[in-house]
Design goal:
Strands 3, 4, 5, 6, 7, 8, 9, 10, 11, 12, 14, 17 and 19 form a 13-stranded mixed β-sheet that branches. Helices cover 22% and strands 33% of the residues. It is globular, with a radius of gyration of 20 Å. The chain folds into two domains: 275 residues, Zn peptidases (Aminopeptidase); 59 residues, RNA polymerase II/Efflux pump adaptor protein, barrel-sandwich hybrid domain (OB fold (Dihydrolipoamide Acetyltransferase, E2P), Beta Barrel). The chain is an alpha+beta fold.
């Protein structure tokens, strides 16, 4: 597939989108939506918890909110809080809950406002506090595994496999200064790739990363959004917010992105507004720390960098410089760690290369 040619057609009409994905089914008899042992009637809603079974005395639950429309349409899964300190998307989904009238909704909203409750409760970045695994690296999960793996399994079976479309909503974790962007995960299936491209454009974040390198094996899909893609579902991963902040602008942009996607799929009234002049990022690389210590950044998120340019330094706990970290190629800093702790094997920054027209 010629990605440059595809990306150059950013203004592709929504008519083509509907030809590829199919318009919503015509009004008619709508069946109840079933999730586990719970059943939601057309035009109704339900809120409760998906249990994550205990093992060795450790278990949890996942809060779920369902709006099942009175008219037929897509099942859209909205998942936030895979990382427990990424707050703006979570707050946006709780705000969304207050705006939805299921009697006027076409299709179904499957909302997971906090996917990783133990991490949220303990305020841990990246990791689950019981097994110290990153939930967004263990999909599709294992029902007999550690807590993170069991959470991933419950989400795969009850959310990914139940939806038609999935948005995995992220932002910079409590240690990350991050510019807004969306991952467009390329599957190699032209129809699915066109749909996910339109989905990324509709969410409304100007910077879109062309991601061709996610695993294609379901058993090793690792990431929530990628798991949906491997299973043939349209999905994007979004990043809006940073450093554990809850600024109103961050919350509203996440909310508006979701509402625009709902308009794209004719779930609610209104015409979607797609990004008219996206910035496509055709290469990206995360630079990891080789040492434990302190990170001192010289630059900030969004700064341009040249190949070999010093981005910051890592010292030991006595203040001795252990490493100067440099940009791997020309690009921009998509995110950079803005708090002092540096741990061996953890990210320090990510560089993205802007696609040339």
């Amino acid at each position: 597939m010629n990605l440059r040619k595809i990306c150059g057609r950013a203004a592709l009409s929504l008519f083509v989108f509907w030809l590829l994905t199919g318009a919503p089914t015509s009004p008619g008899q709508v069946k109840s939506f079933v999730l586990g042992r719970f059943e939601v009637a057309p035009g109704g809603s339900w809120a409760g918890y998906l249990p994550v079974p205990e093992k060795d005395g450790i278990g949890t639950s996942i809060p779920v909110i369902i709006f099942h429309g009175a008219q037929k349409g897509k099942v859209l899964a909205l998942v936030a809080g895979v990382h427990g300190c990424e707050y703006p998307p979570m707050l946006a989904l709780y705000r969304l809950k207050k705006t939805i009238d299921p009697k006027r909704l076409s299709g179904t909203l499957l909302i997971i406002p906090i996917a990783h409750l133990p991490s949220f409760q303990r305020r841990t970045i990246y990791y689950d506090p019981s097994d110290w695994k990153n939930l967004n690296r263990v999909f599709p999960g294992d029902p007999q595994g550690t807590l993170s793996q069991r959470i991933a399994s419950v989400l795969t079976e009850n959310v990914v496999k139940k939806c038609d479309v999935l948005i995995d909503l992220h932002c910079g974790d409590a240690n990350e200064a991050l510019i807004p962007y969306t991952y467009w995960m390329v599957s190699g299936n032209p129809k699915l790739d066109e749909e996910t491209k339109q989905l990324a454009l509709a969410f409304g974040l100007k910077n879109i990363i062309i991601d061709e390198f996610k695993p294609k094996d379901l058993a090793d899909s690792r990431y929530l959004g990628n798991t949906a893609i491997v299973l043939g579902k349209a999905a994007i991963t979004t990043e809006r917010g940073f450093l554990g902040r809850t600024d109103e602008e961050m919350i509203e942009e996440n909310l508006n992105g979701v509402l625009n996607v709902m308009k794209l799929y004719k779930m609610i009234e209104g015409s979607p507004q797609t990004v008219s002049n996206p910035v496509w990022v055709d290469k990206y690389e995360v630079v990891f720390s080789k040492h434990d210590g302190l990170f001192y950044p010289d630059l900030k998120m969004g700064d341009a960098v040249a190949q070999g340019q010093k981005v910051g330094s890592v010292t030991d706990y006595l203040g001795n410089v252990l490493e100067e970290v440099k940009a791997p190629f020309n690009g921009v800093l998509l995110y950079i760690i803005a708090t002092p702790p540096a741990n061996k094997g953890e990210p320090l920054f990510e560089v993205g290369r802007i696609q040339q027209k």
